Amino acid sequence: MTNDAITDVPGVRVGHCTVRRDPDVRTGVTVVVPPELPLFAGAHRLNGNGELTGLEWLRESGLLTTPVALTNTHSVGVVRDALVELARREDGTDAWALPVVGETWDGFLNDIDGMHVTREHVAAALAAATAGPVEQGCVGAGTGTICHGFKGGIGSASRRAGDLLVGVLVQANHGRRSRLVVDGVPIGRELGPEVVPLAGRDAGHGSIIVVVATDAPLLPHQCEKLAQRAALGVARTGGAGENSSGDLMLCFATGNRGLGTTEGRVALEMLPNDALDELFYATIEATEAAIVHALLAAETTSGREGRVAYALPADRFEELMRARR
Predict the structure, then answer these.
(1) How far apart are CA 99 and CA 97, in angstroms?
(2) What's the domain range around 190?
(3) N or C: which terminal CB in the chain sees fewer CB atoms within 10 Å?
């Protein structure tokens, strides 16, 4: 694993467009671009106060047919429309698309009602998509997010399962400070309450989107199983899918290709269900690590109405982890 990110899965690319203007614009777009489309995929809902468009067709067909884009809650429509427009340009006027677009609410720091994300920002994120190291923290769709009472953001990680890979990318905007746990260490309780209370932001309010990629040869129902296990990674860091939270997980598998054909038969491979456990473990651990990476990469950020979200103090975090070890 060279990047410790979702891009360790061969062919997967990630791109960001950060939309940041003083004093109160703190948002953006992040895209995850698979190496080929369509691919087998599955999804899971931990708690549904959120949006991930296109899931009904994904569940019906078992296929992911577009890149996955992430943004803020009130910009889902413009991002979806931009992906439709780009599909029409690439495939012709008869192109058909039900794009997959996820969101979390960044309105504590961001002027979310200002509709600052545009189609051009989506195109820029796609143009910036690369297979190398993934920029994390306060970038793209993570620019204005908050996680466990600290500044959140985009996080990514990967884990091996034998000769197979699982990569995860999260848009982390969820959780309570008091529940934050890392490798069993109660980081949130040790660090205490927020330095400045997050006025207007109820504890536990927020969401997380988890995108899982694997190079394993999986069928759609098996992708759904991996998406479910991502929720256990959220739980390992203290996330509980509170009633006000939107916690949505999607997994796509690159191990079968050529799924877009309309003629003849498609030769498929699959792992036996009894061989999935190592992939489950890898998904859980990569999700946990991606959330931690989002927290550690984030920076203290001010925004709307002078509000401030403070970064997780890396020095205190390291002290607490060393003491436990």
Answers:
(1) 6
(2) 6-324
(3) C
In a domain, 111, yes or no: yes
Identify the residue whose tokens are 């569940």: 59
pLDDT tens sequence across 118-166: 999 999 999 999 999 999 999 999 999 999 999 999 999 999 999 999 9
Q: What is the CATH number of the domain that holds 62?
A: 3.60.70.12
Instruction: Give the chain's domain count.
Output: 1
Residues 44, 45, 49: CA angle, nearest 5 degrees: 155
Locate 93 and state its tokens.
């006027």
Query: pLDDT digit string (tens) for 272-304?
Result: 999 999 999 999 999 999 999 999 999 999 999
Count of alpha carbons within 13 angstroms of residue 12, beta-carbon side: 32
In a domain? residue 1? no
First CA to last CA across the chain, in angstroms? Answer: 25
Does residue 156 fall inside a structural domain? Answer: yes
**CA pair distance 178, 281, nearest whole angstrom:** 25
**Per-residue pLDDT tens for 174-233?**
999 999 999 999 999 999 775 445 544 545 568 999 999 999 999 999 999 999 999 999
Q: Which two tokens stand for residue 216?
A: 């394993």
Residue 264: both structure tokens together: 């003849």
